[in-house]
Amino acid sequence: MSRFDVLCIGNAIVDIIARCDEAFLVDNSIIKGAMNLIDADRAELLYSRMGPAIEASGGSAGNTAAGVASFGSRSAYFGKVSADQLGKIFSHDIRALGVHFDTKPLEGTPPTARSMIFVTPDGERSMNTYLGACVELGPEDIEADVVADAKITYFEGYLWDPPRAKDAIRQCAEIAHKNGREMAMTLSDPFCVGRYRDEFLDLMRSGTIDIVFANADEAKSLYETDNFEHAIAQLRKDCKIAAITRSEHGSVIIRGDERVDIDAIDIDEVVDTTGAGDLYAAGFLHGYANGKPLDVCGKLGSLAAGLVIQQIGPRPLLSLKDAAEKSKLG
Amino acid sequence: MSRFDVLCIGNAIVDIIARCDEAFLVDNSIIKGAMNLIDADRAELLYSRMGPAIEASGGSAGNTAAGVASFGSRSAYFGKVSADQLGKIFSHDIRALGVHFDTKPLEGTPPTARSMIFVTPDGERSMNTYLGACVELGPEDIEADVVADAKITYFEGYLWDPPRAKDAIRQCAEIAHKNGREMAMTLSDPFCVGRYRDEFLDLMRSGTIDIVFANADEAKSLYETDNFEHAIAQLRKDCKIAAITRSEHGSVIIRGDERVDIDAIDIDEVVDTTGAGDLYAAGFLHGYANGKPLDVCGKLGSLAAGLVIQQIGPRPLLSLKDAAEKSKLG
């Protein structure tokens, strides 16, 4: 028995989303397609140059928790907001989906994290994240009973950026494994992998995590190779299950000697790629927690990712449960 | 000479937008299609029942100011936010369009106004507005030089809800007319007309305002008639110009003995009607301030309104200048 299918842990962020042209990224030294970490001063500067925007709750693992709940699975989330207006918005949006979210908000500064997301005409998103209150997430924020009661605890590699979240994750892994649960992570971003390559490899090789999500760039960055198949071969040795997304080429799932190739769904127009990887993980984890075979897990991931990139914002505006039923994956 | 084409004055509001079904409106006693004024307690209650939402700067006259700027006209705005995160978002979004916005934010409580907007499957929006800092807008917020330098000063009837904004408007009218400028207003909402019918009629009949915007329901509410043509006949007597929108039936513009009927543009799908009237006014005022004939003013209004209802959120995400050029109205 378990109270939760999936517990997600990550940086709790409100997205500020606007369109821009390619030149804007160049002029402002924003690495396209990446998560650019910024400080408060640069956040002010970039915001002053940003066009009119809309706001939506985001955060990689937050989006995954929302997706898992939207599929109808029981989902929980740990992440640190501040007790401010953006923090209230984040808390509202995730709880409104039925996600258990009870991390104590930070009183006072720094404020709730925000990511300024610039979407270019090709639909690619370039993120500029000010971590704010996220830097305060630590072991004291772990609800041990929730970890013990979740089939899978999933976290984002981005958590290696704030100082103490990694301690919280290690504590979670201990609780989870002691209770016969599984740990999963996403490698998050190729530059994030560059910052923490050895630690991520150690998490995998030490068995701290069981399931790894990555996109092709992150997988190649992890093994410092430009050969995708080489990265896949290494992942096969280093973790129990790996699910590697490849944008329009779908995804590859490996488990021991098994390999499953999954197609991407048909897309009318890529509006905004924000949340694609997060929602792939949501679909996969929803399937996995409910005992589905790997190919169904992958198809659920493809479905959710394909839907979220055809809208603005990182969390699907429609019910993923309905979408799964329509696709006969429900 | 003039520094501004259009100055807009209104309640400065951040919209919180979510979809809901028809039953939700009934269960929560929300009047469909209307602006429901709510207090802080009801705002908390409704938010706790609201699904996951997105946030976007709104406010009726704020949307009009944004639309005027998006058409390429020179636009200014007066409205009161608080010095909080939502206030910063509102200020950013309107300034990012090049709108002059310099109203001093309120320090401390109440916080920036927000409107919880529920969009039903038919695309109709039902607004629930907590006025927050807007109640503090008063004559001290009038930048007399801006009023004197704007071809048209436009304000929303909603400004009769907060206590002192009406004094600010009367002061503006005096400055504007002394400088040979014109005053325009929107009747805002049929229930708002019900609250201030006599005062609105007096504004028109005393010549305090020159141009009136309304939709058919508001016009009929003003004269307590269910006969649209009767309302039109009365408006003809009571103001110099009236532009009356009729949803999918387009709009009617009257000036003295003149009458111009304008078609609505073709719509693929009504996604969210929020901002339709505000953007009609934006298109009309952009045309009018630039000396276009009434039929072109009306067509510009139809264009902007038609575009904004095919997206989520109250301000067009694309350039209205480009749209006008494409429609050969530029």
Please characterize this protein's 3D structure:
The structure is a homodimer of 330-residue chains. Helices cover 38% and strands 22% of the residues of chain A. Chain A is α/β, with parallel strands linked by helices. The first copy, chain A, has a single domain, classed as UDP-N-acetylmuramoyl-L-alanine:D-glutamate ligase (3-Layer(aba) Sandwich), CATH 3.40.1190. In chain A, strands 6-5-1-9-10-11-12-13-14 form a 9-stranded mixed beta sheet, with helices on both faces. Chain A has a 5-stranded mixed beta sheet with strand order 3-8-7-2-4. In chain A, strand 12 and strand 13 form a beta hairpin. Strand 4 of chain A pairs antiparallel with strand 4 of chain B.
Oligomer: homodimer
Category from helices, strands and their pairing of chain A = alpha/beta
Strand line-up across the major sheet of chain A:
6-5-1-9-10-11-12-13-14
Query: What is the arithmetic mean of pLDDT of chain A?
Result: 97
Q: What would CATH call the homologous superfamily of chain A?
A: Ribokinase
Q: Please tell me how large the radius of gyration of chain A is.
A: 18 Å
Features:
homodimer, 330 residues, alpha/beta, UDP-N-acetylmuramoyl-L-alanine:D-glutamate ligase, 9-stranded mixed sheet, 5-stranded mixed sheet, 12 helices, globular
